[in-house]
Amino acid sequence: MRTTFISLIALLFCVVQSMAQDKISGRILDLSEKIPLKNASVMLLQAQDSILVGYTRADEKGDFSLNKPKSGDFLVVVSYPKYADFFKEIKETEPESDLGEVLLTSVAHLIEEVVVKRRAAITIKGDTTEYDASQFKMEKNAKVEDLLKVLPGITVDASGNITAQGKTVKKVLVDGEEFFGDDPTLATRNIRSDMVDKVQVYEKMSDQAERTGVDDGVREQTINLKLKEDAKNGIFGKALAGGGTDGYYMGQLMFNKFKGSQKISAYGLLGNNATTSMNWEDAQKYGGDSGSTVSDEGITFVESQVDPFSGQGVVGIPRAINSGINYNDKFNGDKHTVNLSYKYGNIKSDGVDETLMSGIINSETRKMVDTKNDQHRVNLRYDLKLDSLNSILLRGNVSRKNLWSEDQTNSKNFGNDLSSPVAENVSRQVSDSEINNYGAYLLYTKKFMKKGRSISLNAEVKREENTGGGTLYSTLSRANAADTITDQYKNHNQKVNNLIAGVTYTEPLTKKLNLSVGYNVEKVDNTSLMESFNTQGNMLDSTFSNNYDYNRLSQNVSVGLNYAGESLKVRFNNILSDDALDQTNNYTSATLKRSFFTYNPMITGSWAITKSKHMWFQYSGKNQLPSLSQIQPLRNNNDPLNFYEGNESLKPSFNNSGSLGYYSFQALSGTYLYIGGNVSFVNDPISQNITNENGVNYYRWANIDGKTDKTFSGWAGRYFKLSNKLGLTNTIQLTLLNSQYNNFFNGQENLIKSDSYSFSYDIGRDTKTGLNFNISLNPQYRKMTSNLSPDQDNSGFVFKSSGKVEYFFPKGFKIYTNYSYTYEAPTDAFDQSLSRLLIDPGVSKKFLKDESLVLDLAVYDLLNQNVGYSRSQSNSVFMQRRYDTIRRYVMLKLSWDFNKMFIK
């Protein structure tokens, strides 16, 4: 595989180098003054499709020269600020083209001339990168997700997760408005690419910052889809049905009606082949397994960014339904803006999940999982512009989840002798919960006649209720001890009420410097009742029952300075916080009261070096208060081999973190470069210390005084075109990760180190004609060590590769193959290598005049190797997980993209 790839790259470079080049030259002058126009832009475009093939700038004398491919007709475009553009067609028969004096006419002297301007494929306006969608060739009926995949600097993975300029995209807006709330994929997979005029990428500020003009440091990487005017009046959508071997099926129906400012959209997805996908953030809202976990060290592991109703990453075969409807409109001259959406999702799955743990703890767990997840969710956003100076924003949401699961578990803990367990537990646990969430947010903003002066009032109410129960039957066996049998039923009733209110005043000190002062108060009331009853005698087990009230009153004052120059923008914010904690044990009437006064500074900024070169930086110092689960001395016996305990004497830890980044965009050539890094130091960290007693592990939270947890990450990447004629592009990226975490095991200091070195190379051709391909190569080396178990580290080589190859024939016929390969070398902790090669070939044919009807026959997992597995480091141990998932099947799909635009 490696030899083939190197040969391919060598062949491509030889082809590029062998292509003959001709010259185009000239001198650019002002028409009236005949003075040279230094740095005038010169573009060479293919006459057929306006694809950029060459670019240069004039020197001090106005002279320029650039290469012209030997074959094809081209168009020379010369532009200069405040001058009309110059156009000249160059035929294939003109090998050497000396344009002589190119005379540009200033705008001031244009009277009756008609000036034709071509839009650039990419432009940068301040902090916004804007793509002209018409400059990128797409298949008929392609979706926005397909468009994003070909835009320089933007990547889209198999689950629809978007990364732009190295940052994860959290929102996708349509004409500046939300589309189904915060779910990006519902816009990117629902809207056709030919409806889009421009794609804008920027960091969206908070609602309050947008209204006051003062940056509060809250940013979300955002993509805004600006639709064509003629695309805002009609209906469009997609219908798909598919059936396969082994009982696999899928169905999709998406419907949209756009009429001016009114947008009505609905979708319904169902299937058992992991195709009802949304995004990973919505997965967290739905309360399921998003595929991402946060370790006790504070490190986030993302195995796969998927939502629970997609069916991806779940154990076994998913049976999923995912649906929703969205309404958006503006009234009375855009004075009122309403966005209302409803979502419903349901998924059922079952299978086997096996986990091995190695290091300072050695264990194996085999679990038979059966789960059901059901949720309704309503979102509302209402914007009211009272007048040019006063506005109100109202947000609201209501959701209801029903979660049911049954786990049959066999787990074993081992000592130094890995052949014989020191403790073993066999259990069956059933859990049934109903979770209700309610939330409302109000923001009133008043601007004054003096620019930059404003006052804003905000209030928020949130409530979460979690009620339910279940049963537990387990048998714990240990050497030289009688078996411990647990036979209980359980109830829980947990409620959290959150009240937040605040006021912020902004005052301009100069034209570029702005002062902001704010006060916020937050009241959080928690009640937690968790009861365990022994089945025999119906007696309360007080050891594993608790009834707590936990209340927090937080007040903070913020003073910030915001400097906004033409190129440099800096925000310096100081937050003084006073937190009062009040905890009551309702069983014993014991109370615990504590208060913390903390200072939390933050600096954020950006520097626009040029229009295409930007640098950004950030620093924050934050006191991290212990959470409710860390403070309360709660105990549960759901897993008799592992007990987790809180610590009422925990103190806040302090986190210093900083990041720095740079990116540049050569707009006309599409070359993109980015580099950045992040470092974090946590002083006196809150960690889980582990004690092993007779084969049972006890995890207890504690501050590691005098120690510092460290995390560093760095990344760099470059995108550029290998050959305009061949349509070849490539991306190179390097990523470094390093972390150090401290805790104690059986009273001994333990230092866990984790390093990751990753290189990735992507090469592709995406012209939608003839042969297209995309190949991604990602070799990695991971080093994971613990000083208490040096002979059982988890260091090893990892290689990942994925891609596609497709060939477009005439008359809408296409053959294609997608593949994904993963290899993980054996380590000291796990002596077996893991490898998986997934190949998904298929053939498709388009029908009808507009090619809107598509018949697709595909084979998934041709080699039948799709075994779910992952390796990670968490809680001072190394973990390896295997689980049941979807295997080989064949599916026939028929899809219809419908589109009817109305004449206004």
Which structural class should the secondary elements be placed in?
mainly beta
Classify the beta-strand content into a percent band: over 45%
**Which blocks of ≥5 consecutive residues have pLDDT under 50?**
1-20, 111-118, 278-308
Rg to the nearest angstrom?
30 Å
Mean pLDDT: 83
The number of helical segments is 6
Approximate helicity band = under 10%
Characterize the biggest β-sheet.
Answer: 26 strands, antiparallel, barrel
Number of strands: 49
Characteristic terms for this protein:
904 residues; single chain; mainly beta; globular
A few lines on this structure:
By secondary structure, this protein is mainly beta. The chain is built from six helices and 49 strands.
Q: Could you please describe the fold and organization of this structure?
A:
- The protein is mostly beta strands and 904 residues long.
- It is built from 6 helices and 49 strands.
- The strands form 7 sheets. It has a 26-stranded antiparallel β-barrel.
- It starts with a helix and ends with a strand.
- Residues 1-20, 111-118 and 278-308 have low confidence and may be disordered.
Blueprint of the fold:
Elements: H1 2-18, E1 21-30, E2 41-46, E3 52-57, E4 63-69, E5 74-79, E6 86-90, E7 97-104, E8 122-125, E9 128-132, H2 144-149, E10 154-156, E11 162-164, E12 167-168, E13 171-174, H3 184-188, E14 196-205, H4 207-212, E15 219-227, E16 233-244, E17 249-259, E18 262-271, H5 280-286, E19 292-294, E20 300-302, E21 319-331, E22 336-359, E23 362-385, E24 390-414, E25 421-447, E26 454-478, E27 481-508, E28 513-534, E29 539-540, E30 546-564, E31 568-585, E32 590-610, E33 613-624, H6 628-631, E34 642-645, E35 653-666, E36 671-683, E37 686-693, E38 696-703, E39 708-723, E40 728-745, E41 748-765, E42 770-786, E43 796-808, E44 813-824, E45 834-847, E46 853-860, E47 868-874, E48 877-883, E49 889-901
Parallel strand pairs: 1-7, 13-15, 34-38
Antiparallel strand pairs: 1-4, 2-3, 2-5, 5-6, 8-9, 9-14, 10-11, 11-12, 14-15, 16-17, 16-49, 17-18, 18-21, 19-20, 21-22, 22-23, 22-48, 23-24, 24-25, 25-26, 26-27, 27-28, 28-29, 28-30, 30-31, 31-32, 32-33, 33-35, 35-36, 36-39, 37-38, 39-40, 40-41, 41-42, 42-43, 43-44, 44-45, 45-46, 46-49, 47-48
